[in-house]
Amino acid sequence: MNKAIVQQIITKNLFDNNKNMDFKFDEKSQWIYFSGIAFKLVKKKYFFDSKLSESKFDLYETVDKFDDGMGPALFNKDYGVLNIDNGWGKFFIYLKTDIDSILAKKIILKVSQ
C-alpha cells in the first residue's frame, strides 16, 4: 500500500466516541482497509440518497471471505463510510446527523440485497 495515496477516514459515532472507527482508502487500488481487513470495490454508484450526499455511494465487499466475516460497506470520497456489517448480524450506520430510522432501514435493505 503506497502511503502517498492513502486517505485516512475517521468515522464518528454521534453518541459514543469509543465506537469511532478508523478506515483507510487507497485511491490507486480503490480499496478500503479497516482493522487489517481489505474491502474491494464491487459496484460503482450502488446507492444514492440526496439527504446524505450529492455523490452516489459505491459498494465494497471484503477481499478474503470467511465465516462471520465483515459484510458489505458503502463508501464515497465526499461522505466517507456510510455503513459496515460486522458479520455477526450488527449493522453500523454512520449518519452525520441524528438517527433517522427510516433511512437506516433503507441502507440496510440495500446492502442486504
Describe this structure in words.
The mean pLDDT is 81. The longest helix is centred in the C-terminal third of the chain and has 12 residues, at 101-112. This protein has 113 residues and is mainly β. The protein has one helix at 101-112; strands at residues 6-11, 21-26, 31-34, 37-47, 57-62, 73-76, 80-85, 91-93. It has one domain (6-112). Helices cover 11% and strands 41% of the residues.
Secondary structure layout plus pairing:
Blueprint (H helix, E strand, L loop, with lengths): L5 E6 L9 E6 L4 E4 L2 E11 L9 E6 L10 E4 L3 E6 L5 E3 L7 H12 L1
Antiparallel strand pairs: 1-2, 2-3, 3-4, 4-5, 5-6, 6-7, 7-8
In short:
The chain has 113 residues and is mainly beta.
Task: Tell me the total number of β-strands.
Answer: 8
Return residue spans where pLDDT drops below 50 for at least 5 consecutive residues: none
Mean pLDDT: 81
Compute the number of helices. Answer: 1
**Order of secondary-structure elements:** EEEEEEEEH
Strand content: 35-45%
| Side-by-side strand order of the widest sheet | 1-2-3-4-5-6-7-8
Terminal CA distance reads: 31 Å
List descriptors.
113 residues, mainly beta, eight-stranded antiparallel β-sheet
